[in-house]
């Protein structure tokens, strides 16, 4: 069953139950860390990869936390997102700015979005609420992070599952570390998007090094990545920047793809630094449980 058929069935069965509320939980100074526990997250289903600009095709369901944001009206993919719990995903604020939760859905567990036939784990989840970080600046994309809440609980399996949040590494800057980016976005600037999920390895730069490439201030709550000829591109926004703890073979969401100059133009990519927003994420998702690994 292709994406259009999945969307049609989803719209026909439950569209009328959509809510258009915003998340309204505890204030940021009332964080309860009791919802951070010992459990499991962030595994990768290792397979032979089969090409984001300069990237390679992932294995089917290789990254269980990856999601696509799809317009209900057209069925077109416009951004990425990542599962962090059974009701919540993270994405870039600019992806959903001035949109209604009823405008789009989250597609999880998919690989080739043109067919939907290469995995039995693809599923559509409606979004009944979202929250953009309060000081997000649409003119500069500062604080470009948002939380999405699904209308129903996401069904987890080996192939659809949350990534780890970096609670244990909240003070790390990850400079010089290799990280992985994912997306179905354009494979060249203003070019076609990819039907299959792509991955690429890039390196984290120090903010000082990144600043030398930009006139605008690179903020402490941003994290820059770079590799020659490799970059995220349009429609990759909101997707993950993932660091692997190789000693335990687990992936951590340390960045959210945000903005840059073109695609693979020699400028670093600027991403949201997730460790700067962990308190906010916890305070706004107090009904969720997260793993401490």
Automatic annotation (TrEMBL):
Residues 1-17 form the signal peptide. This is Peptidase S1 domain-containing protein. It comes from Hypothenemus hampei. Keywords: Disulfide bond, Hydrolase, Protease, Secreted, Serine protease, Signal. SUPFAM superfamilies: Trypsin-like serine proteases (SSF50494). GO terms for molecular function: serine-type peptidase activity. GO terms for cellular component: extracellular region. SMART domains: Tryp_SPc (SM00020). The lineage of its organism: Eukaryota, Metazoa, Ecdysozoa, Arthropoda, Hexapoda. CDD domains: Tryp_SPc.
């Amino acid at each position: 069953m292709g994406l259009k058929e999945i969307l049609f069935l989803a719209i026909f069965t439950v569209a009328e139950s959509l809510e258009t509320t915003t998340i309204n939980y505890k204030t940021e100074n009332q964080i309860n860390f009791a919802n951070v526990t010992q459990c499991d997250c962030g595994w990768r289903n290792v397979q032979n990869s089969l090409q984001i600009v300069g990237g390679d095709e992932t294995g089917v369901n290789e990254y269980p936390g990856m999601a696509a944001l799809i317009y209900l009206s057209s069925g077109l993919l416009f951004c990425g997102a990542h599962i962090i719990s059974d009701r919540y995903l993270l994405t870039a604020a600019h992806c959903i700015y001035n949109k209604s939760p009823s405008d789009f859905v989250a597609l999880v567990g998919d690989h080739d979005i043109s067919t939907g036939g290469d995995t039995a784990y693809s599923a559509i989840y409606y979004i009944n609420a979202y929250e953009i970080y309060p000081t997000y600046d649409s003119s500069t994309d500062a604080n470009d992070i948002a939380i999405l809440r699904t209308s129903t609980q996401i069904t987890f399996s080996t192939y659809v599952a949350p990534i780890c949040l970096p609670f244990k590494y909240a003070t790390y800057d990850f400079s010089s570390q290799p990280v992985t980016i994912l997306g179905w976005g354009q494979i060249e600037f203003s070019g076609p998007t990819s039907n299959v999920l792509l991955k690429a390895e890039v390196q984290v730069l120090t903010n000082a090094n990144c600043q030398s490439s930009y006139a605008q201030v690179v903020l402490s709550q941003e994290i820059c990545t770079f590799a020659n000829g490799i970059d995220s591109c349009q429609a990759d926004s909101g997707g993950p920047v993932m660091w692997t703890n190789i000693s335990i073979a687990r992936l951590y969401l340390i960045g959210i793809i945000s903005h840059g100059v073109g695609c693979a133009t020699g400028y670093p990519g600027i991403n949201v630094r997730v460790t700067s927003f962990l308190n906010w994420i916890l305070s706004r998702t107090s009904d969720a449980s997260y793993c401490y690994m």
